[in-house]
From TrEMBL:
Pfam families: HTS. PANTHER family: HOMOSERINE O-SUCCINYLTRANSFERASE. It is found in: Cytoplasm. GO terms for molecular function: homoserine O-succinyltransferase activity. The keyword Amino-acid biosynthesis applies. CDD domains: GATase1_HTS. Its EC number is 2.3.1.31. Its main location: cytoplasm. The active site is at C142, H234, E236. It catalyses: L-homoserine + acetyl-CoA = O-acetyl-L-homoserine + CoA. Pathway: Amino-acid biosynthesis; L-methionine biosynthesis via de novo pathway; O-acetyl-L-homoserine from L-homoserine: step 1/1. This is Homoserine O-acetyltransferase.
Length: 315
């Protein structure tokens, strides 16, 4: 799926070197197809890294995708330049009149805070409420998944005795569900968090389905109406992301354990091996195809979506 992003975006050069199909906006306008319009609410502090990780996974299908990045107006980011946000990001007020085929809400390293203490919680609630009738399907990642479970379904997070960090085995409860079509019976995925959610509350909730779980607890949760996909880990992570986080925590003087099942022989001097890449691509491809593209009526959306400007043109 060629992704349509601004020419000047730093992620573009990285993706092109990886042979990810990135389309010029000029070429995109000449194709007689309706592109998918995907909104990404990027809550991660190192936004440029997350941009590359998500765009890489969105660029692996035969259709065209227009991507719009969103940041919180009520929060000042410390790890990305103001000029980057001004050039490549929008705020809720500038997109709220539009409709989107899909939306991704990322994680954020703020699990230690109660949701109501997060300085942009009210704005996030507004966006999640807006998404109910302005977005066909929403994928929530890590803290974003916990926020969705709390806001939409009343399931709160709880603190773990120690940080859950590493690569963990997972199984699937129902192989016929379209989101995990093609998955192996056992697969691996990264986790990096200090909190979790209750398995019992999820399986007992009438509107939720626990699709996949493993050594790190519940992993893939879907709403019964398939409107919300909640991923408690980080399938989008690069091979070295957990290593970078581990070294960062060590430098901060935190009492942190080596990520589990990650470094060969638990030797931090050895390069980790990526065991989750194929399932990362498969998950995003299935989501885009079955939950976004297949669920979005073409003619209806031409009236409200086809004329959405490119990400750097929305005002």
């Amino acid at each position: 799926m060629p992704i349509n992003i601004p020419k000047q975006m730093p992620a573009r050069e990285i993706l092109e070197k990886e042979k990810i199909f990135v389309m010029d906006e000029e070429r995109a306008t000449t194709q007689d197809i309706r592109p998918l319009n995907i909104l990404i609410l990027n809550l991660m502090p190192e936004k440029e890294k997350t941009e590359v990780q998500l765009l890489r996974l969105l660029g692996n299908s035969p259709l065209q995708v227009n991507v719009t990045f969103l940041h919180m107006a009520t929060h000042q980011s410390k790890n990305v330049s103001k000029s980057h946000l001004e050039q490549f990001y929008k705020t809720y007020d500038s997109v709220k009149k539009y409709y989107f085929d899909g939306m991704i809400i990322t994680g954020a390293p703020i699990e230690h805070l109660p949701f109501e203490k997060v300085n942009y919680w009210e704005e996030l609630k507004l966006i999640m409420d807006w998404s109910r009738d302005h977005v066909t399907s929403v994928m929530h990642i890590c803290w974003g998944a916990q926020a969705a479970l709390y806001y939409h379904y009343g399931i709160d997070k709880y603190e773990l005795p120690a940080k859950c960090s590493g690569i963990y085995r997972h199984t699937i409860s129902d192989q016929t569900v379209k989101l995990v079509r093609g998955f192996d019976e056992v697969y691996f995925a990264p986790h990096s968090r200090y909190t979790s959610v209750s398995r019992e509350e999820i399986i007992n909730h009438p509107d939720l389905n626990l699709l996949s779980e493993g050594e790190a607890g519940p992993f893939i949760i879907t709403s019964k109406d398939e409107k919300h996909i909640m991923i408690t880990g980080h399938l989008e992570y690069d091979t070295d992301t957990l290593a970078i986080e581990y070294q960062r925590d060590i430098k901060k003087g935190l009492d942190i354990q080596i990520p589990e099942n990650y470094f060969p022989d638990n030797d931090v001097n050895q390069a980790p091996v990526n065991t989750w890449r194929s399932h990362s691509h498969l998950l995003f491809s299935n989501w885009l195809n079955y939950y976004v593209y297949q669920e979005t009526p073409y003619e209806q959306d031409r009236k409200v979506k086809v004329d959405i400007p490119a990400a750097n043109d929305i005002s």
